[in-house]
Specification:
The chain is α/β, with parallel strands linked by helices. It contains eight helices and seven strands, in the order E-H-E-H-E-H-E-E-E-H-E-H-H-H-H. The protein has two domains: 1-110, Dna Topoisomerase Vi A Subunit, Chain: A, domain 2, CATH 3.40.1360.10; 115-176, no CATH class. The protein has helices at 11-20, 35-47, 58-70, 97-105, 120-125, 134-145, 152-161, 166-175, and strands at 5-8, 25-27, 50-52, 75-76, 85-86, 89-90, 108-109. Strand 1, helix 1 (11-20) and strand 2 (25-27) form a beta-alpha-beta unit.
């Protein structure tokens, strides 16, 4: 059972999540959502907490950023792109109930303060920037750490803001 309210993009996402877990949801209907919807999400966060669970695509990331900017310390669940893709269509609605449940159970809270555990020097040291293989390494580490696929700037922000420890990062790197 998930106690938080799950924020998803569309009706098909609601149906897919309902196959995996019994939870309350708020639907954004894309990233052009009205101001009163953001107020509803803020209120849900105050009362029960929220998990932002958007598609692993550009629109999903844009929605995630809008909500994160307005609501501090919410949780984020990530689904790898290949687990959310069916016949070229990318979306939560394409994922299996097991993969959806796994993503929700591994949701990470984003901290309010700016944490500086990792720096760009660490990104270079761990071969996560500045080489031909860096993007692939970040993608694979994003899956292992359950923080989603991201560019180097997003990756650094996520490992800091989702309280990933150095030990967790190094263990994930060993698993590569």
């Amino acid at each position: 059972m998930i106690k938080e309210i799950i924020v998803v993009e569309g009706r098909d996402d609601v149906a897919a999540v309902k196959r995996a877990v019994d939870a309350e949801m708020i639907v954004t209907n894309g990233f052009g959502f009205p101001e009163d919807l953001l107020d509803r999400i803020k209120e849900a966060h105050k009362k029960k907490g929220i998990i932002v669970f958007t598609d692993p695509d550009f629109a999903g990331e844009k929605i995630r950023k809008i909500i994160s900017r307005e609501i501090k310390n919410c949780k984020h669940a990530f689904l790898p792109r290949e687990k959310a893709t069916k016949e070229g269509n990318i979306g939560i609605e394409n994922a299996s109930p097991k993969d959806i449940l796994d993503a929700l159970k591994n949701a990470k809270a984003e901290v309010e303060y700016e944490r500086k555990e990792f720096t760009i020097d660490d990104m270079v040291y761990y071969n996560l920037v500045g080489n031909d293989n860096a993007s692939k390494r970040r993608t694979e580490l994003g899956k292992i750490l359950k923080i989603g696929k991201c560019n180097s700037k997003q990756f650094l922000k996520r490992i800091n803001n989702y309280l990933i420890t150095r030990e967790e990062l190094e263990e994930a790197i060993r698993r590569l």
